[in-house]
Amino acid sequence: FPLAEAGSQRRKAYPDGDDVVTSQRSDEKFYGTKLGSFTNYAHGIGGTVYAVDPDTLFIKGFTYDGTGPGVEGAGGLAPHYSGPVVNEICCMSDAFFWVGNTTQPSPRGWVVPYPENYKGSEVPILNRYQGENIILNLPKGIKIKDITWISVWCRRFTVNFGDLYIENSKIEIPQSVKLSEFSRKAHGVASGNVTILDERTFYIPELRYDGRAPDAFFFVGKGTTPNVETGIKVPNEKGSLERLGAYNDKDIEIQLPKEITVHDIDWLSIYCISYRENFGEVFVPDNLFVPPALGQTFITTTTTSALSNCLPLIDNVLQVRWALESNDIVVQLVGRIEPNQYMSFGLSGSPERSEMIGADVAVAYFDERGEPRVDDYFLSAKSQCDGTRGVCPDTRIGGSNDFHSVSGEYVGGVASITFRRSLRTSDVKMDQDIDATIRSQVIGAVGNLNNRGEANYHFSGWTAGPVSLSFSSVGFDGCPVPLSPDASNEAEKRTPKNLKPWEPQYIEGEDIITAQIGPTGGSRGYKAITGEESWGIAWWLNGKLIPEVYVERGKTYRFIVEGGKDETNPAEYHPFYITDSRYGGYGQLEAAERERETIYAGVSITNVKTDGTGYPYPTAVGRLCTWEPKMGERDQAENVDTFEEYKKSLELFCHGDGDPGELTWKVPMDAPDLLYYQCYNHQNMGWKIHVVSEGFRLRREKGPDNGAALSRSCNTISIAVISLLLCAVIGRWG
């Protein structure tokens, strides 16, 4: 194989007077663009630094004594030193490669891990080095053009042991080069645009070839067309020189033999040697300025997807696995959940602790067709989404869903859903960028989906205490036991299905009713009574959890409303209204949904003459009073058998100043038999209103199963029945 002769060199002048070789057509070994050499201030820092590609540095002959002792007094410190003067041994185990974009090395920078493939959550400290060659991959999202210096830095005492300043405006950095697609000549050969990643590495996306030729190989050589005389075989993506098999839209990476670079060839072909036939080729241009082949190149193809990191978010319930791939983070949530539940994971609303408000999270679940879904959520308040605030999908409040490439399966009570998102978000209002160079506070939860298919309150579990991780970690496995499918279905074991629901509560014969906010009573309360999921709070009327209310047509009722009136905080704003909707939440509905609902009380329309719109608004708002567990106690819903016992564990708190609201309602004579009291802003907080005629009486009888048997009677019917019986008796005696 005739190797090309060394070509002319391109040189760039630098301020220190060095001529830096930037062309690769040279007799000398090419390491990239020379940036300069370290200046040593302490501990023998040395080495020459090169820009290999936009993300990678190469240090030739790096030296460091590995001891990191402090400096006696200030005399030994260079002018670039920043930090305290120490008179003792420091930094015995706290020196790192450090880069930044300030005017001089300072604590405002980024650590560059070396070696990169370390295990565990802590970045390893530098050991002793004596003239070794080192490849440094900058943190994801940071380019050489973004930094102004590199330092060997003692993070603990902010001591600069040695540095090199980088003048970005005066350097040219080698970069990958995109070529054409393979020409399509025979045997179905085709591909996407081929990329030269470095001097010896080609990336071929979406490669197709039928694999039917007797001895076809990857082939490179000189000349204007592929030919057997100047060509040489190139190993396939597995490093093998076996004949090529079939490829079906496969992404692969191949490397030239060590003695050859892209500067020595004119073409890359899929070539059949026996028949001397070229099935398709890509031509390689001259004068390329691509990165050197130093072993830094790695491409994640369609055949690789190892999520080597794992962290438990909720013990034995929810785990997160992740990996950083280029500028994307790949996440897999694995959880023991039921089919109607969700798993969530994301960035905390606070950089110091686990905080729900302000969090940017992914909510993963399976839809009604069994398809995996991942929705992007912004948590602006600890409340159900009202269409503007609360726990809301971004797409519902004007944002976008940044998650894509979703896949998953549900086996034996364990859900596994994998998805991607970019480190940099396109939705700056509702999403956070991911900084892979630091540890990020994260949160996770498991809960039920509501009737809209949105996340409800996370009764099933959530992250307790601060939880953090580094998105750039490699090989960090903090999960002692993987969550694997279980025929016994652990999710069902955790669900207290054997707990009997509480008996329904009733209000009948009362015309003044006080409406307050309280807990839903766990698995015995709201869901067991209504069959619907709730956010975690519900209406309590006259001290009863969502009682069924009986009202008479034509009669007037007063509702004293204490559901909160702070419109700026959706968790403390619950207007009361009466409707024919089983779900409520009129304020968050779209126009088409509103047309299907009829409101009977608690909502007025603004003056059309004043604002031209006639916009609805709630009228029954007042101070906030809530039923809560007594001080220092947990919710006892799962531990007591009756509602009466449960209520004894609670006490009523009224928050702040202000007066109750009031709703006066005269029941229309044509009102339907069944209506509902609900919250104007949130769904699934109320329950039934039975509309009856005058004289109705509600009677509850205890049956043999201690259940409540309802019977309806009225005085007129009772009198009629008695009269008929008397007539029958008199007739019989007569």
TrEMBL record:
Sorted keywords for this record are: Repeat
**Where are the annotated coiled coils located?**
none
Keyword Repeat among record annotations: yes
Pfam families listed in its UniProt record: DM13, DOMON
Q: Which domain of life is it from?
A: Eukaryota
Asked whether the keyword Repeat is assigned, the reply is: yes
PANTHER family associated with the record? SKELETOR-RELATED (PTHR24036), THROMBOMODULIN (PTHR24036:SF5)
Q: What protein am I looking at? A: Uncharacterized protein
